[in-house]
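One record is kept unedited as follows:
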Amino acid sequence: MEGLRTSMKAEAEVVKNLVDTVTSDKIKQVNEIEQSLLETLYDQNQNIDDYINYLNDLIKMFYGYLSPSNIEELTFALNSENLIIRPIPETSKPVLPVFTAGQYSKEDVTKLLGRITVPNIKPVNRKIKPMETASTQLKPTGKQRKQDREKSDVKQTLSLSPSVTKVREYTVPGVDDVYHISLGKSGRLWVSDWRGNLVQTDLQGNQLQKIQTSCGYGYHTVTQDGDLIYTDRNNKFINRITQLGNTITEFIKTGDWGTISVHSSHINGDLLVGMRKYNEGKITRYNKTGTEIQNIKRDDKGQKLYWYPRYITENINGDVCVSDYNNDVVVVVDKSRQHRFSYKGQGSKFSPLGLCTDVLGHILVCDDISKTVHLLNQDGRFLSLLLTEQQGVKLPISLCVDDENNIWVGQEYPNTVTVCKYLQ
C-alpha cells in the first residue's frame, strides 16, 4: 500500500511538472507576441511623429505668407501645381491574441492520473517448491521479529528530506578509487578499487587490513554475522573471512561460471551472486551454508535477463535488483524470480553502477553518464536526482546505506567516501 501511495504522489508530481512546463511555454509565446506587437506599434508611432513634424514645417511656411504684402505669393503658392501635401500615413490596429481556456473536469484529471483497481481474481493455491523456499520459508526468531518491529516503527516515522546534508567525508588509504563499499560491524567498512585492492578501515580512515584480490565491481559483502564474503573471478571461488580471524577460506566453488558480484541478504542471510559465462549472466542464490537454492537467468518469455551483473542488492520486499553493465539497465525481479521491471534512466544514455536500497524500499543507483545518483521507488518509478555535483559528489560509483539511514557514496576519483543524510 505504501508503494501505491508513493506511485500516486510521484505520478502527480510528474503532472505538476508538465503543467509548469506547458504554462511556461505559453507565457513565453505570449511574451514573443507582445514584443512583436510593440515593435510594430513603435514603427507606426515613428511614422506619425515624422508626419506631425512635416505638418508643423508646412504651417510655419504658410504663416510666412500671411502678411498683406505676401498675399499674392500665398495665392500663387496655393494654386501652384508643385504644392503637394503628403497624405496621412496609414496605420493598422494590432490584432491581439485570444486565450481559450481548456475544458476539463475532475473526471479528466482522474483519467490522467490513473485509477486504483482491485483485480477480481480468485486466490490460487500453489505448491511451493522446496528449491525455492529452503531459506525464504524459515520462521523468524524472536530476535528477528523484534528487529522487524523496530524497522517497521522506524519506517513509519521516516520520509525523504527536502535536501541532502553531508554528514562527513574522509579519504580511504590503500585504494586508488572507491568502486565498492561493504559496511561491517563495529563501525568498520571494506572498500575496494579497480586494481583489486580490498581494504578494511575504521570510521576514522585508519587501515586495519588489506587483501589483494582479482578485482571487479560489487564483488564483496558483509554477512549478518560480520563475515566478509568476496568473489575470486579468476579461480571461480567465493571466499570468506570470519569476523574473528583473518584466515581466507574457500566457501563456494562456482564451476564454469565466473563470479562478478555478491550481496548478503539482510532478510534471511542468503547470498545472491552475480555470474557470467560466455554471453549470458545469471543470479544464483545460496543459503548460509553455501547450498545452491535458486537460479535466475530468464524471464517468463524465455528472454535473457542479464548480460553482465556487476552490482547486486536486495530490497525490503525481497526484490533482487541488479545493475547490468552491457545492457545499461537496472533489472529487478521478485523473490519468485518473476521479472518486475527494468529501469533505463531518464535521458538517452544511462550507465548504472553501484546501487543499494533503504528501509523505505527506495532504490538508489549511480549513473556513470550524468555522474548523479537516481532515486526510484520500489516499483521503479523515478523520483529525483538525489545526489549531484551540487552536493559535492562529482563522480559517484558505489553506494550503501547504514543502520542510521545515511547513504555512503564512494567516488571514482579521488579515493573518497562521502556520507550524507537524505531521510528525516
Notes: Helices lie at 2-63, 71-79, 106-113, 130-133, 142-157. Residues 128-139 have pLDDT under 50 and may be disordered. The chain has two domains: 2-113, 143-423.
